[in-house]
Amino acid sequence: MAAALALAERGRGRTAPNPNVGCVIVRDGRVIGRGWTQPGGRPHAEAMALAKTGAAARGATVYTTLEPCVHVSSRGPACADLLITAGVTRVVVALVDPDVRTDGSGIARLQAAGIDVATDMLAGAARRSMGGFLTRQKLGRPFVTLKLALSADGAVAMASGTSKWITGPEARAHAHLERARHEAILVGRGTMEADVPTLDVRLPGLQDRAPQRIVLSTSRHPGESGGIPAMEAERAPLADPSFRWGDGGAAWGSIARPADIATLAGVDHLLVEGGAQTAASFLHDDLVDRMLFYRASILIGGGRTLPDIGLTDLAAAHGRWSLHDTRRFGSDRLDIYERTRS
């Protein structure tokens, strides 16, 4: 299952509105098939893995990070039916699919066909892996990751607003990898006007995985005073409904409020990258699910920090975030926090 979860990460940020699923097929102690959900959501992971096994799948065990689907689509067959036809004898599932079209029905269909089914293997890791899909299913919006680069004394920029570069090249390279794992990236209007950022992915071999670019602006109409800069106006719809992964971030979209992220079509993973006021507004509205704090070994002194996030009681700040992971990139440290929700 750990191998299946690793495969699922290959599809993260590319499969919306479908989940990024991984699948491994094992027979006689040997892996005979591997698959992961392809860009755009099809083919599914199980279909990809079965396509590599042929008749060898008969009698095999299948490890899949999400319950096999049962709904027939014009884009492909139901995975539960494919597994039954292939003659597998056991299916191990990390998570039950919350999609109402499946939600236990896939497991029931497999069991009715005489296939042994086990569930809840590495379920916590699977929830983390498919956070975008699960958040869209439960909350009706994308999974939001907030990225901030901080000095050792907690500043996000100098007093003048200058923030290039707080962190070193290794940390910035990792930030580009994070961009490649999201369907969309968002900055505030101030960052847009000051930097006119490309928000692309500048890593060898991943340049074509640039996410859709979104600007948070109180003016939702490009070209108006205070809105998106005129140089981008001709390609800045409210939220480009025609965008699909692989467009290289050519289109810009705009939203007026953080809550408008729910309207972004084809976006299950959203990276909020700049600036401080935008970060504060998402935190204020409790729309952040994961935080990436890149902490540099520098002191700024008198620099800019996060604005008000609506906290009125210090006691209320405790218990909301848990430290999930810490890594080192050169002289910088990355702390990854996850929002604690019921």
UniProtKB/TrEMBL annotation:
Its EC number is 3.5.4.26, 1.1.1.193. Residues 1-118 form the CMP/dCMP-type deaminase domain. One of its GO terms (molecular function) is diaminohydroxyphosphoribosylaminopyrimidine deaminase activity. It catalyses: 2,5-diamino-6-hydroxy-4-(5-phosphoribosylamino)-pyrimidine + H2O + H(+) = 5-amino-6-(5-phospho-D-ribosylamino)uracil + NH4(+); 5-amino-6-(5-phospho-D-ribitylamino)uracil + NADP(+) = 5-amino-6-(5-phospho-D-ribosylamino)uracil + NADPH + H(+). It holds the Pfam family dCMP_cyt_deam_1. InterPro entries: CMP_dCMP_dom (IPR002125), Cytidine_deaminase-like (IPR016193), DHFR-like_dom_sf (IPR024072), Eubact_RibD (IPR004794), RibDG_C (IPR002734), Riboflavin_Biosynth_HTPR (IPR050765). SUPFAM superfamilies: Cytidine deaminase-like, Dihydrofolate reductase-like. Its cofactor is Zn(2+). In the C-terminal section; belongs to the HTP reductase family. In the N-terminal section; belongs to the cytidine and deoxycytidylate deaminase family. This is Riboflavin biosynthesis protein RibD. The lineage of its organism: Bacteria, Pseudomonadati, Pseudomonadota, Alphaproteobacteria, Sphingomonadales. The gene is ribD.
